[in-house]
Design goal:
Elements: H1 2-25, H2 32-40, H3 54-63, H4 75-86, E1 104-108, H5 118-122, E2 128-129, E3 137-138, E4 158-162
Antiparallel strand pairs: 1-4, 2-3
Helix pairs in contact: 2-3
Length: 184
């Protein structure tokens, strides 16, 4: 019995050392440009750009396979930041991409929700909570407004509600240019 435990422990140590060596030896460095582009994207993972998430879209932009104007949740502000980062000219939204919409959050009508959990499975950011055959609800602070929960709902109890303008959500429409004081 002790011999078997000793052999298993020795085998675990040897395999761990091999895996540790392999992780250092075959490490792949990520492209820093992809990381910078991904940081600018809104992280909604909605797929409205034609890619399965924000990271694949960032990789496509970095490799030149996608343009900077295909992310509706990022809005024009996102396009401007991407253009500035990449040193290219600003482009309006791509005609083939979805049109930008105001920032919205999902709301579930509690009286018609049947607790099917299909919306929970569709939500890429886990903003919907609930249990099977129980009413579901949306954590508004986590909801990105991607609308992926709308299609799978069999009773159409989810609707998108635009966020109103408040101190927390209000932004300047145009970039603020600081006023410089001229010294005489």
């Amino acid at each position: 019995m002790l011999t078997a435990l000793g052999v298993m422990a020795l085998l675990a140590i040897v395999l761990g050392a091999i895996l540790g060596f392999a992780s250092v030896r075959f490490r792949v460095d990520a492209d820093p440009l992809v990381d910078q582009i991904d940081a600018i994207l809104p992280q909604t993972q909605c797929g409205q750009c034609g890619h399965p998430g924000c990271r694949p879209y960032a990789e496509a932009i970095a490799s030149g396979d996608a343009d900077i104007n295909q992310c509706p949740p990022g809005g024009e502000d996102g396009i401007r930041k991407l253009a500035e980062l990449l040193g290219v000219d600003f482009k309006p939204f791509d005609g083939e991409a979805a049109e930008p919409k105001p920032k919205s959050v999902a709301r579930i009508d509690e009286t018609t929700c049947i607790g099917c959990t299909l919306c929970i499975q569709a939500c890429p950011v886990d903003a919907i909570v609930g249990a099977a055959k129980q009413m579901h609800t949306v954590i508004e602070s986590e909801c990105t407004g991607c609308e992926l929960c709308l299609a799978p709902c069999p009773v159409d109890c989810i609707r998108m509600v635009p966020l109103g303008t408040s101190v927390e959500t209000w932004k300047w429409r145009y970039p603020v240019i600081p006023i410089r004081t001229i010294k005489a």
